[in-house]
Model the fold of this input.
Amino acid sequence: MDGADADAADGTGDRTDGGGRSAVPAGDSGTAAGVGADDAEPEGPPEKMLDRAEELTPMLSQYLELCRGHPDAVVLFQVGDFYEAFCEAAETVARVCEVTLTQREDSTGTYPMAGVPIDNAASYLEALLDADYRVAIADQVEDAGEATGLVDRAVTNVVSPGTVIDDDLLDRASATYLAALVERGPGKPNGVSDAPDDEPVAALATVDVSTGECRVTAGPTDRIREELERLAPAEVVVGPDVGLDASALGFETMVTERDPAVFGRDAADATLSGYVAEPAAVLDAPIERRAVGGLLSYAEYTQGGDGALPYVSRVQRYDLRRSLRLDATALRSLEVFESRQPGGGGTLVGAVDRTVCALGRRRLEAWLRRPLVDDERIRRRHDAVAELLDRPIAREAVREQLSAVYDLERLAARISQERADARDLRSLRATLAVVPELKAALDDAESAALRDLRTSLDELGDVCDLIGRAIVPDPPQEITEGGVICDGFDDELDELRAAEREGREWVSSLEERERERTGVDSLEVGYTQVHGYYIEVTNPNLDRVPDDYTRRQTLKNAERFYTPELKRREEEILSASERADALEYETFREVRSRVAAETERLQALADALARLDTLATFATVAADADYVRPAVGADTLRIDAGRHPVVERTQDEFVPNGVDFAAGHVAVVTGPNMSGKSTYMRQVALICLLAQAGSFVPADAAELPIVDRIFTRVGASDDIAGGQSTFMREMSELTDILHDATAESLVLLDEVGRGTSTADGLAIARATTEFIHDEVGAATLFATHYHDLTDLAADLPNAFNRHFTVSKGGGAADPVHASGATAPDPDADGTEVTFLHRVADGPASSSYGVEVAKLAGVPDRVVSRAREHITHEADADATTATPSAAADRVDEEPQSPDDSGADPTATPPAHRGDTLAAYVEGLESDDPDDNANGRALESAERDVLEALRDVEVARTTPLEALNTLEDLQRRLDE
Ligand code: ADP
Ligand code: MG
Done:
C-alpha cells in the first residue's frame, strides 16, 4: 500500500439503506438496555423451564443452558432441519416471523414452540433483526448419526444488527459497522493528543465484521459523539457508564451493554494482543485500547467466541483532524447519502456513483463521508482523475476489468473464517485473474497515485495458481460431497478416483460378459441404493443361472443375484468414493487455509481495487457530466458557473451560477421562495466536498480553499419533513457553529431563525451573521427570503449581497424564462412570476419576499417591520446611492408590491423606494381607511391578523401551525 494515501482506505461508510429497524428507546435508568424496544425485550431463560430445571428432558435442559448463556438473545435451537424456540421466545418467533405457534409436550409439561426451516433461515433472521432482536444460533455440532444419546449443540454465531455476516442480510453498497464507545471524565492525564486533560474524552472503535476493517479514534467527547453520528453504526456497544439513548440518535441503531470488565485496561489489552503484537505501541492512548478491546471481545462473542477473528489483520488509528468535518446534520442537509424528500429523491452519492464493483461503491461512500483536508493528498487524487479523464481508453479498460471483480473484502473474510465454499474460491480466482490486465492498462500511468496503485496491484499468482489447480471451474455448492477438487491435484485422491472408476468400468462391462457366459441375452446389471449392484435374470431363464450366483432379491418376473466378485467390487467402489469425498473435503479445507494465510495480501489488493474503482468513477463522472478539475488550496473561494450535482440531473435546464468570495467572506443571498437560494448554497458546499474527496466538480472553473468543516443550519421551516423543527435544536446547532467554526470553515445558514417568532429569528440571524463576520471569519453563505437582512451586507465591510432575480409577467424575452419554474402569482390578474434561478450581485430587488412571507402567514408585525427596513433602505439609497449600488439593480425587472388587488400597472415604479415607502406608510397607519392600497381592511381580515399576531410560534408544532393556517384561511373565506 502506498504511504501517502495509506489511510485513504478510509473505509468508513455506513448503512444508508435504513434497515428498517426502529430506534431503541432508553430504559428507565437512562441508559438504554441491551435490546430495548418495547416489543423486543431481552428473552432470558424461560421462567417456566427454570422452575422445573431439574426435571427437564436432556434436550430441553440443554436448551435452557444455552438460554442462560445468552440472556440477551433469542436462542434458535437446531433440531434436525429446523431452528426451534420455546416458551416466550417461541411466541416472539411466531409473531415476528409469522410462523405457527405449536407446542412441545414432555413429562414435565407443555411448552409453546415455534420453528423455522434452516434452509430459509436468512429471511427469518432478517425479520428478527428488523424487530430489534439479537439471535443466538445454536447448531448441532455433532453428527446426529454418530451421537450417542443427546446431540451436542453450541451457539456458533450470535447475529445482531452490527455483526451480520450473511451475504443475504448485508447491503453490498454500504459497510455495516459495529462500534464501541468508551468515555471518561476530565481530570487525569488522558493520553489523547487532541484533548486537554481537563476535558472529557472518549474513544470510538468500529469494525466491519464482514470485512475485518477495524479502526479507532479518540478525542473530546462531543467530537467523538459527532463522529458516532456520522458513522451511524448499526450497533453500538457501550462502555461503562456511557449513557447512550438510541432514540435520541439521528440514525437507527441497537445499543448493546456488556460486562464493563471487558473494557478494563487489562482485559482490553489481553483481547487486543490477539490482533496486534504490541497493543500499547500501536495505540498509545489507553482509552483507545479499551474501546477496541471491548469491541473485539463482543465481536468474538458473536462469532462463536473461541478466539480472535482471523481476518481482523490490523487495527488502524485515525485522527479526526485529518479529515473534513461533516457532522450528521451536514450530511443530511446536503443530502449526501440520504434524500430529505419524503419519497426519496437524488443524493450526492447517487449522482456520482459510477462504480463497477462493490469494493468501489463502499469506498466511494467512505471518501464522501470523510473528505481530505491535506492539499497534497487531494491533488494526488485529482492528478489520477485527470489522467484517467484524459485517457478514455485506459479508463474504460480499467472499468471493464473491475466489473469482473467480486467483493474481495468479504470473500477474504469468509475464507479466513472458514465460511467460504468452493465457489467462493473460484470467485477469488476470477478476481485475481483480472489483475494482470489491470496492471497492463496502467502501464504508462504517470500520476503518482496511479503508479503506486499499479505497484500495489498484487496478482497473487501463487494463490491464483493454487486455486486453478485445486478447485474445479464450476464446483457444486456443497463442499462435503465431492466433485470439488481437480484431477491431478492430489495423488491419493487420484488413486481413489481411479479405483472407483476402474470398479465402475468393471461393473459396466459385466453385463456383456455375463450375457456371453450364461447365454441369457436379457440379463441386466443394475444398482439400487438399498441392495447395491445386482445381476437380474428373468424367470424363464432362471435355469441358466450359474452356480456362483447368490440370490439377493426376488421380483415378480425376475430374480436378482450377485457374485462374490461383484460384491467385492461394490465394496471397493463405495469405499473409494466415500474416502474420496472425505479426502476432497480435507483437501478443500487445506487449500482454503493456504489461501487464508494470504489474507493480508488479499486485503491490500482489495484496497487497491477499491481506490482504483473510485478514481475511475470520478473520472467517468467528470467525462459524462462535464466536471472540471478544481484548483485546491486557493486563498478565497471562487466558482464560475457552478452547478448542483444532484439538481442538475433532475432539472431540464439547470441555470449555472457562480460565486466569488473576493468581495468578502459573508454572502447574504436573497430572493423569494423557490428562486434557488438553497440550491445555490448547497451547490457551493457540495463542490467543496467533492473536491476534497478527490473528485472533479460541476462548474466551468473553481478555485477552492481547503475547508476544515462544513456547517449547515437549515431553518426549521425547511426541515419539517425531518421532524426536527424544534427551536431548541436549531439554536443548539447554531451554538455549535458559533463555537466550532474557524476561518477555514464553510458555513451555510439557510433561513436561520425561522423556528421562533420572526422578529426574534431575524434578530438572531443578524447577530449570528455579525458574529461570524467579526469573530469567526468563516466563508459564509446566508440565504434568506427576508429582504430585511440585506442591509447587513451594507453594514459589514466583509459581507456582500447576492440575489436571485425573478421576472414578472408572461413575456419570454429572456431565453431562460422558458426553462425557469413558474409559480402562480399572488395576483388575481393572471400574470405569472418566473423564477430565473440566476444569481446576481446586490440585494434582492424589493419586498417581493415580504409579500410572499405575508401570504405564507408571517405575523403582521414582522411584515410591517420588514417593510420599515425596506423603506429605510430605500431612503438611504435615495440619498447615498453609489454608482455600484445603482448598477446592482440594473438587471432587475420592475415589480409591483401589491398584494390586494390593486392594478399592478397603475403606478409605474420609477424608483421602487417611492412606491414602497408610500405603500408601507399606508399600511403602518392605524386607521384602516388610510390604507395605501386605497381600501379598508375588512373586519374579518383584521381578526385574522390579530389571531396571527397571537400565535406563539416558538411553541407551535408544525402540525398545529398548519391547522392554524387552515383556520385563518377559512376565516378569510367566510
Ligand atoms: P429557495 O431556497 O430560494 O426557496 P430552492 O433552492 O429550494 O429555492 O429552489 C427551488 C427549486 O427551483 C428547486 O427545487 C429546483 O427545482 C429549482 N432550481 C433551483 N435552482 C435552480 C437552477 N440554478 N436552475 C434550475 N432550477 C433550479
Ligand atoms: Mg430555500
Summary: Residues 647, 651, 654-655, 657, 671, 673-679, 821, 837 surround adenosine-5'-diphosphate (ligand 1) (CB under 6 Å). Confidence is low (pLDDT under 50) at residues 1-39, 717-725, 809-832, 877-934. The first strand starts at residue 74 and ends at 79.
